[in-house]
Specification:
The protein is an alpha/beta fold. The protein folds into two domains: 114 residues, Aspartate Aminotransferase, domain 1 (Alpha-Beta Complex), CATH 3.90.1150.10; 237 residues, Aspartate Aminotransferase, domain 2, CATH 3.40.640. Helices cover 42% and strands 15% of the residues. The strands form three sheets. It has a seven-stranded mixed beta sheet, with helices on both faces. Strands 9-10-13-12 form a four-stranded antiparallel beta sheet. Helix 8 links the parallel strand 5 and strand 6. Helix 3 runs antiparallel to helix 4 and helix 5 packs parallel to helix 6. Bound molecules: pyridoxal-5'-phosphate (PLP). The site of pyridoxal-5'-phosphate has 13 residues, from helix 5 and helix 6.
Length: 395
Amino acid sequence: MTIDNKLWGSDWQEVRREFSLDSAVAHLNHGSFGAVPVPVQKFQDELRRRVESNPMKSLSRDLRKQLDEARLASAKFLGADPYGFAFVHNATTGANSVLTSPILHAGDELLVTDQTYEAVKHAAERACQSNKARLVVAKVPLPTRDSEELVESIMAGGTKKTKLAIIDHIASPTGLVYPVKKLIEELHRRNVLVLVDAAHAPGMVDVNLDSLQPDFWTGNFHKWCCSPRGSAGLWVGEEHRKLIKPIIASWYYNEKYPDSFRWLGTDDYTSYLSVPEALRFMEALGWDRIRTHNRKLARYAREVVGSVPGMVPVMPEKDEELFEAMTLVQLPDGVADTEEKARALQARFGEELRIEAVPIAWNGHGYLRLSAQVYNAPGEFDRLAEGLPRILNRK
Ligand SMILES: Cc1ncc(COP(=O)(O)O)c(C=O)c1O
């Protein structure tokens, strides 16, 4: 596979300059914490300046209308009924808000997968403990043959007692893109409620909640929409809105959803208000262009890093659609196969190679998850491929 630095076109350098990322570092892990473009940072700075110029007016009188406007724009981007949509600070909070609401009962089963994000799995465990429900973990094969195999492996974890399933749209340890629409349909056919953990989905793939019709959905704007950290959404289907309450009981706790989420105590709400600006920034670059760039570059990354001796690219047998802007390469046996070793390797990448990449210990193996975002270029993955043998040979 050949790819050149002009993948993005002649204006790639300009795109890169829109981010304040350290130019001496290759940032190959957008997936974990995102990156905020300079114009969006400035927008948020200005909002904060306005709050500081009159906190009383800003928080007590102006915020409500501003939040509603931002909420409407964000819901529209997701193809979602705005009455079902609330801002939350992150997908962890979104998932916890659902799991602490009275959905599970004694004897119920809660279905997750072995690719469920660890923090969300902890929230699921806690919900099971406090409701005397049972957690069932479906095993998803890796590499995965195709989307049918993904659906089958998850459905195999279901029983008559399954009340709720947590389905990733894009899984954290693998970057796999799940066929969520099909999964929701199949689970609904069996009367199972579905919480979609879409932490990575907004921006990386098209999201249309009207068409997906999950029961519950949570997703981040601060990853692939490049909005400031602390901006995420929770969407709840109409029939469940009476049940869902914020984890924190505050002033509007007794109001109906989503008003109950409006104010969860004094806080900096500017990350929510900056979401429409981040969406405008990305739209101006062009979502199709961004996604084409990211998809192609992620495949290039998998190929070039996967061809380093000892590394194994994780490829679906049939279905390339299962990966978008994040791809996966398996590390040699014994490398980063524990959480501790993975952290140490990450630090070595950062300090010795000046490359930010995320080794992941998962199911007894070590993997490298590689992210491709608009500000990345092929040369950065070449750098990783060149530096890897040095790091791997000095375990
Ligand atoms: C699948 C998945 N769910 C949830 C989260 C948590 O996101 P946050 O830290 O923004 O709450 C992540 C973070 O990477 C994730 O990948």
